[in-house]
Amino acid sequence: MSEQAQPEKDKSYALDAGNVGAILEATTTQDAASLETLLEPLHPADIADLLEQISPAERRDLLALWQTGLDGEVLSELDDALRDEIIDTLQPAELADAVRDLESDDVVDLVEDLDGAQQEAVLEALGDADRVAVEQALAYPEESAGRLMQREVVRAPAHWNVGQTIDFLRAEDDLPEQFYHVILIDPRMKPVGYVTLGKLLGAPRAVKLTDITEDSFRIIPATQPEEEVAYAFNQYHLISAPVADEDGRLVGVITIDDAMVVLDEEHEEDILRLAGVGEGSLSDKVINTTKRRFPWLAVNLVTAILASLVIAQFEDIIAQFVALAVLMPIVASMGGNAGTQSLTVAVRAIATKDLTGSNVWRVIRREVLVGLVNGAIFAVVMGIVGVIWFGSPMLGVVIAVAMIVNLVVAGLAGTVIPVVLEKLGVDPALASGAFVTTVTDVVGFFAFLGLAAIVLL
Questions:
Q1: Mean pLDDT of 409-437
Q2: Which helix (H) or strand (E) holds 374?
Q3: Which CATH architecture has domain 286-455?
Q4: Nearest partner of 345 among 280, 426, 410, judged by Cα
Q5: What is the pTM of this model?
Q6: Pick the CATH number of 155-274 from 3.40.250.10, 1.10.10.10, 3.40.640.10, 3.10.580.10
Q7: Weakest-pLDDT range from 138-152, 168-182, 417-431
Q8: CA-based nearest residue to 251, from 224, 231, 214, 215
Q9: Do 150 and 136 form a contact (C-beta atoms < 8 A)?
Q10: Pairing state between β 220-221 and 191-196
């Protein structure tokens, strides 16, 4: 692919700037007909992106003009904070109309954080069966499979054959808009297998359903945390999976689209926590973003003070050798970067369950050896720099040895700390960064300045 074609490919799914401009122009001129024409062909996810990218004032004007267009599919695609903001502007009747045609899992996702009046309005707008399904899902713990599942399930008795199942599907008036499997149940409503639509349509009518079931069949407990559900879908390449209650009876189904949303959220959450910014989005207000980031900046301040206390112990030698003050940030920075590399690998491996008790020591040994090799290479480089820059061979030796020590410790800390925190029940993505930074700074400064005090004085 040519270099000119690549940028176009990268923008394939981005909102067209000209179209966005036309939408904002129609909003400014209060041209409701043009606005409807411009928004009608857009996918709900694209409309959600549009609402997230424009300013709050533009968003308010657009929604006020586009009174009939906002529906549940757009709401379900919005970032949580922005969705709450928009829902707050809707009347209960408008909100109820917007979510009336959504699948039960999308309704649950929308209403679980609403206040009492709005939640009641949405539930009253649903049919009796849908309302009961949503209320039952809300009874499960937050961020569990019971909240994630949809209650619309296509099921068939395990003793049926292909012909009976196809006839049933053709006669059924209330099938889900999308489904991937027919779930087989026993007389006690317990799932015992499932059949893909492809095998169902490709098999002769007389074939028993139990003869064409999939080996990938797995039952998800309704109380299982949703991150575990997402892991199962990713690990075992599931398309959908039945959800069972505590008695093993079928209560719903989770599909791959919902599982991948959770997986994406988990990845994003890990990245944000490793950076110390917490959960948030580009649409969050200044005060909310400040509150989330302030605690971790405060923690970093404490760790920086601790590192400064180490430096203060070597004031005399720093005063005699100004070169030490020039080179100290290099040692600390290299250690911090190496620690972050090992930390990122370890946290991700813990999240994907690749780092376990059976291989943890092998991984720790690898990271320490990587730190040793990298430290030795950069030790030679910085030793030469120290000699050329300051004309002191011993200074070159000091920074070389300090570099090796700090990179080895960085590899060790970046792996051991998240493992220990995970064993203690603390989210390693949330707390590891501050500990690793503290260790590499303190060790780096102490090793560099301590060696300098021994060798140079």
A1: 86
A2: helix 360-390
A3: Orthogonal Bundle (1.10)
A4: 410
A5: 0.69
A6: 3.10.580.10
A7: 417-431
A8: 224
A9: no
A10: unpaired
